[in-house]
Write a structure and sequence with these properties.
Length: 277
């Protein structure tokens, strides 16, 4: 898997050099630097970044303004961000919190504290690796490129169940996505294999089509939103589903009982099930 990529945005050249030196040495990652928010945004739009360390106080275009631009850009809005600040003011905390950032590193920072905080943040990412399973290498490559261009996730691909099992044993995989229209691999048989192995049965599993891959990852990545219960005067009539949907539903029910899947949106041959497990 590729090295993690961290972008540090700070107008203090010394902070940039210290962060780059210690993080690359201790975490074996690639560190990109920018001395202003505009340059940082340009880098984010060109490179896939796993984490941004963003200084709050910068001239012309400060950290909060930069963060607003990040969250407002569909291409980069999901990148994790930690704020660098010399003084944590309540208004700054509230504005950053409203934009989904609650992690701060106080300046001046000690190298050991910087390493520990950044490592912890990287370890907290929802998905560190995605395994794509299908029988068409061209389609899998396109799916990999689409995911990696839009999300800070590593992706690995397998065209056989044996190759997929090897990847699961050797790499850190946090989500398995199988193509719905595989001719030579049955995604649900592989799901049964993974569910029966205690080393893999905690990994969320989804079946989708190449056209729906970004929508699926977007929904899985989105924070959970509690919905207000609605009163239903009369339960809706339940129609008999087509056989292929019934097969999907049965697979989901089995794993609902085991509570092995979370926030899975399953798309299968044109029939879409929005199911929260």
């Amino acid at each position: 898997m590729r090295k993690k990529v961290i972008l540090v945005i700070d107008d203090d050249e010394m902070n940039l050099q210290i962060a780059k030196m210690v993080l690359e040495k201790k975490l074996s990652c690639e560190v990109l630097t920018a001395d202003n928010g505009v340059e940082g945004l340009d880098i984010l739009r060109e490179r896939r970044v796993n984490l941004v360390l963003l200084d709050v106080m910068m001239p012309d275009f400060d950290g909060i303004e930069t963060l607003q631009e990040i969250r407002g850009d569909e291409q980069i809005k999901n990148v994790p961000v930690m704020m660098l600040t010399a003084s944590v003011e309540r208004e700054t905390i509230q504005r950053a919190g409203a934009l989904g950032v609650k992690d701060y590193i106080r300046k001046p920072f000690m190298p050991a504290d910087l390493i520990a905080r950044v490592k912890k943040k990287l370890d907290e990412e929802i998905f560190k690796g995605i395994l794509l399973l299908g029988d068409d290498e061209k389609i899998l490559r396109a799916m990999q490129e689409a995911v990696e261009e839009n999300f800070p996730y590593e992706t690995l691909a397998a065209t056989t169940a044996a190759a997929a099992e090897k990847i699961l044993r050797e790499a850190e995989i946090n989500l398995i996505i199988a193509c719905a229209d595989m001719k030579f691999i049955d995604g649900f048989k592989f799901l049964a294999l993974a569910a029966g192995d205690e080393n893999f049965n905690h990994i969320p599993f989804a079946v989708t089509t190449p056209e729906k891959i970004l929508e699926l990852v977007e929904k899985i990545n989105a924070p959970a939103v509690e919905e207000e219960p609605q009163e239903i005067s009369e339960p809706p009539a339940v129609e008999e589903p087509p056989p292929i949907v019934e097969e999907v539903a049965e697979a989901v029910v089995v794993h609902e009982e085991k509570k092995k899947l979370a926030k899975v949106v399953t798309t299968f041959i044109g029939y879409k099930l929005d199911t929260k497990i």
